[in-house]
Specification:
Elements lengths: L4 H37 L4 H16 L3 E7 L5 E9 L2 H4 L2 E4 L4 H8 L3 E3 L10 H6 L3 E11 L2 E11 L7 H62 L5 H29 L5 H20 L4 E4 L9 H21 L5 E7 L4 E8 L12 H11 L3 E6 L8 E8 L3
Parallel strand pairs: 7-8
Antiparallel strand pairs: 1-2, 1-6, 2-3, 3-7, 4-5, 5-6, 8-9, 9-11, 10-11
The structure holds adenosine-5'-triphosphate and magnesium ion.
The site of magnesium ion has 4 residues, from helix 9.
């Protein structure tokens, strides 16, 4: 039977509306992609751009949770640097092992991974699965192109939600690839800037050494040679003083040259990697890997003394959990809040600290916290059955 003209017109209108919507969506993705590239190339902090990327993908993809994770220096660990959506607050800062997690796999292969039910997928890292147990369908995309993957972007939907359509996945994948390329360009540019800064410093150091010091030295020698010819004792002693002052100046300039040639290491990155190293090391004693969360405030606001005490406190807390608690799980979180308080929290699901027991390591921790304007608090972890210990060590980060 023939279809009526109205029916054809109706389905045409539907089709047009669908095509229009599709074109609109494509346009918005392209726009978002352009914005990312522009802001990265105009020098905006890449971390800030990635936070914006996460929010854009959340808005455009119809995902319930969007997460961006970047490898730590050395590549053994991956940190969730930004997240938007359901449960986002709980996962930011989570540090995952690269070799036993899905983001690690995507990072290594450059190939996206599709997961039907994340909450039940044995390939995911346990710590991540615990915190994202509400997520079912999930896709993880490389940021960048195979062979040059800078991080990963993942989109997830609540358990029971529909999987991501192939067309939508393609769009997100190309967005992620492009964001990665822009990130790479930004990183190269900042490397080049750093290199040219170093070249300038080297040139200044060389000039100071070859020209300034040599001339001061020659002048000092010449003056010294004249001292024996001076008959007025007072004048001779003044010249000798001037020669001594020149020697001091030469020493100062040498110190400056040394400082110019030193390559400053980022103290925040060093602290992060030292924390990760201690957690890795203590995993052997514990018999399992603790879950680790590093808050964002950790970048650049911790004094060397607070950093040193923090590492000692972390080691002591983990050693206690390993030796006394008979725990099966330990969680570590470290962060600096906006008020400048550095907090280390170590919880275990073990026996708890017996009342009235003699304290030695813990007493040291309390004293050190006190010397940095802070406190040590010990209490039940509040897990199932009220078991375990929660140790909170809080100090002034800048103390
Ligand atoms: N996480 C924990 N779970 C269960 N018991 C704990 C825990 N931490 C400490 N304890 C108990 O508290 C006691 C005191 O701990 P503290 O760290 O002060 O000393 P220590 O570990 O025995 O000795 P040191 O720290 O000098 O090696 C421990 O002996 C242990 O009985
Ligand atoms: Mg101890």
């Amino acid at each position: 039977m023939d279809r009526g003209p109205q029916v054809i017109a109706g389905s045409l209108a539907d089709e047009n509306a669908r095509l229009y919507e599709e074109a609109q969506r494509q346009h918005r993705w392209l726009q978002a992609s352009g914005e990312v590239t522009t802001s990265l190339l105009s020098g905006t902090d890449p971390r800030q751009v990635l936070a914006a990327v996460t929010a854009q993908v959340h808005e455009l993809s119809g995902a319930d949770l969007v997460v961006v994770a970047l490898p730590e220096k050395g590549g053994r660990r991956i940190t969730i640097t930004s997240a938007v959506g359901d449960g986002a607050d709980g996962v930011v800062g989570l540090v995952l092992p690269a070799d036993r997690s899905l983001p690690g796999q995507v990072l290594a292969t450059g190939q996206p991974v599709t997961i039907t039910d994340y909450s039940a997928d044995p390939r995911s890292a346990e710590a991540a699965r615990d915190l994202m147990g509400h997520i079912g369908p999930k896709m993880i995309f490389p940021l960048g192109v195979p062979g040059n993957v800078l991080g990963v972007l993942s989109v997830g939907r609540r358990r029971g939600g529909p999987p991501f359509a192939a067309a939508a996945a393609d769009v997100i994948a190309s967005f992620a690839a492009q964001a990665g390329v822009a990130l790479e360009l930004a990183a190269r540019r900042s490397d080049a800037e750093r290199l040219s800064l170093y070249e300038d410093r080297d040139r200044i150091a060389r000039d100071l050494h070859d020209l300034v010091i040599q001339r001061l030295y020659a002048t000092g020698m010449a003056l010294e040679g004249t001292v024996s010819m001076i008959v007025v004792p007072e004048v001779a002693s003044r010249v000798r003083n001037a020669v001594d002052a020149m020697d001091e100046t030469i020493k100062d300039i040498r110190a400056t040259i040394f400082a110019l040639q030193a390559r400053a290491e980022d103290p925040a990155a060093r602290l992060r990697s030292e924390i990760v190293d201690i957690v890795d090391e203590m995993a052997v004693m514990l018999g399992f890997a603790p879950a680790l969360r590093l808050g964002q405030g950790l970048d650049g606001r911790v004094s060397p003394e607070a950093a040193e005490y923090l590492l000692t406190a972390l080691r002591e807390a983990l050693s206690n959990a390993a030796r006394h608690a008979q725990a099966t799980a330990v969680e570590v979180s470290i962060e600096v809040d906006t008020a400048g308080l550095l907090t280390l929290r170590v919880t275990d699901d073990g026996t708890g600290i017996p009342a009235g027991v003699h304290r030695s390591g813990l007493r040291n921790l309390a004293q050190r916290a006190g010397s940095l304007g802070g406190v040590l608090e010990l209490g039940p972890a509040g897990g199932p059955g009220g078991h375990g210990t929660a140790l909170v060590w809080r100090v002034l980060a800048s103390a």
